[in-house]
Design brief:
alpha/beta; FAD/NAD(P)-binding domain; Polyamine Oxidase, Chain A, domain 2; 3 domains; binds flavin-adenine dinucleotide; auxin biosynthesis
């Protein structure tokens, strides 16, 4: 089967130079040359680029606007013995590069799979006691099989409409359609009416059985970012350095809001598109790239972590999809040893924007309304709450990129094109788009393109 990664490369190459790769410097300079590369952003894409470039012998400087590495990998200790993820959560079984890096840095990956419970139309169905209709399950298996034989033209055609329309056209209806919308929208962060049918089908057809919700790094996913930072050398990573201007001549000058400026031979821009749009590019970005940056939306996701005095849900592998406001719950402290436990209420799209503005008291009432009819009174068990709304994150204004109708094969390759001395990286241009794995892949690809 042609995977998204391979297919994107093929179409890009065939597509009238859509993907104009910069000439590799490896041919010009020795791998141990002392060229200076500035990397903008210390998320997984920027860190992976810096790590690989350093291994190749380049001098690297990573400029990061925040006071920490990891970016959208944002592990947080809600109490000393309990760590939760406010950003990237699951490592997929198919995410081989991330797993390799964990091996290299002696990080342990733990099982983080769940068996999903359901609340639908006020009725509660424990895991294993609900399913799609037999008819739809059969059809969906068939759809996934058919994808293996899709031609490139079939894939391009799929990108012309949305995943909700695709499901309807394939005969998904009623309760099956309602539940697919609830579940699939958690993957994309917005209603599936906004998601390219190609992006969705490719993800489901190429993913592991649990749709890449398989593992997580023991102690928090940020451990990988920290290990990468150690390997790059902490002295090469500068916090509180927000890039505001990038000026290219025969070299590149990168200027930060704190007045510091850096001269580099090459630059890796590993920033989300919203952050890119705030930079003064001299000369200006090519028109098609500037337009692509304006066109791409990011999904609104809200994570509300609720710390309970005890794990009333009983089983460690608990998650729950609901047709109510809190949308999706999962046990965010699975197998972490403590009496307390955290459920994260994960909302998307409009619901996320509403959830973000709720006070703790009001949200507790939403919890009671949704959960108490099935799990008993809970308010006396709530110990604390914490909310992070990605839709208002000043760097991304969303959780991850959302490829809408007709954008996968047009907007994405343009965003990936290098511009003179600048190479781009980040989850938004990855084949594993929306994943930590994708961020790492693009960072390493940018490093390889440089040398
Ligand atoms: C809620 C949520 C859930 C997710 N769930 C999963 C999941 O389950 N599994 C999974 O694999 N992935 C998941 N992801 C996606 C994953 O976290 C991202 O794909 C990945 O971390 C993105 O890495 P990046 O390096 O491309 O970008 P980022 O991590 O955003 O890195 C960009 C960096 O640039 C910095 N920056 C921004 N502007 C400037 C500037 N002007 N100057 C200098 N620095 C700047 C930022 O502070 C940031 O550190 C999730 C993300 C979110 C938000």
């Amino acid at each position: 089967m042609t995977t998204r990664r391979k297919f994107l490369q093929q179409t890009a190459l065939a597509g009238a130079g859509l993907f104009v790769s910069a000439p590799s410097l490896a041919n010009i300079f020795s791998p141990n040359s002392n060229l200076h590369v500035v990397i903008m952003g210390a998320g997984l894409a920027g860190l992976s680029a810096a790590y690989k470039l350093k291994q190749k012998g380049f001098k690297v400087t990573v400029l990061e606007s925040q006071k920490r590495v990891g970016g959208r990998v944002f592990s947080h200790n809600i109490q000393p013995d309990l760590v939760i993820e406010l950003g990237g959560e699951w490592v997929g079984n198919s995410h081989t590069r991330l797993q390799e890096l964990c091996g290299e840095f002696n990080l342990e990956l733990e099982n983080n799979q769940f068996d999903t419970h359901l609340i639908y139309k006020d009725e509660y169905f424990p895991a294993g006691k609900w399913n799609y209709s037999e008819n739809w399950n059969k059809k969906f298996d068939q759809i996934i099989k058919e994808y293996e034989n899709f031609s490139d033209a079939d894939k391009l055609a799929l990108d012309q409409y949305d995943w909700w329309r695709f499901l309807i056209n394939k005969g998904c209806e009623g309760r099956d359609l309602d539940i697919r919308e609830l579940l699939d929208s958690t993957d994309f962060g917005e209603s599936i009416r906004h998601v390219s049918a190609f992006a969705a089908l490719a993800e489901y057809a190429e993913s592991s059985e649990k749709n890449e919700m398989d593992l997580k790094i023991k102690g928090g996913n940020k451990m990988l970012a920290e290990k990468l930072a150690d390997a790059i050398g902490r002295e090469n990573i500068l916090f509180d350095h927000k890039v505001s201007r990038v000026k290219q001549t025969d070299k590149v000058s990168v200027v930060c809001t704190n007045g510091k400026s850096f001269t580099a031979d090459k630059v890796v821009c590993a920033l989300p598109t919203f952050a890119m749009s705030k930079i003064d590019w001299q000369p200006g970005l090519p028109e098609n790239k500037a337009k692509a940056i304006q066109e791409l939306q990011y999904a609104r996701i809200n994570k509300r972590a609720i710390l309970f005095n005890e794990r009333f849900w009983k089983v460690e592998n608990f998650d729950l999809i609901t047709d109510e406001m809190p949308h999706y719950f999962y046990h965010a402290t699975k197998n972490q040893k403590a009496k307390e436990g955290v459920l994260i209420s994960y909302t998307i799209g409009e619901k996320a924007a509403v959830a973000a503005n709720r006070t703790h008291d009001r949200y507790q009432k939403e919890l009671e309304t949704t959960l108490s009819p099935h799990f008993g009174k809970l308010d006396h068990l709530v110990k604390d709450q914490l909310n992070y709304y990605w839709g208002a994150d000043e760097r991304t204004m969303g959780a991850y990129a959302l490829y809408g109708i007709g954008q996968w094969f047009t907007v994405k390759p343009i965003l990936a094109e290098p511009f003179e001395h600048i190479h781009f990286a980040g989850e938004h241009i990855a084949d594993w788009q929306g994943f930590m794995e994708g961020a790492i892949n693009t960072g390493e690809d940018a490093a390889d393109a440089i040398g």
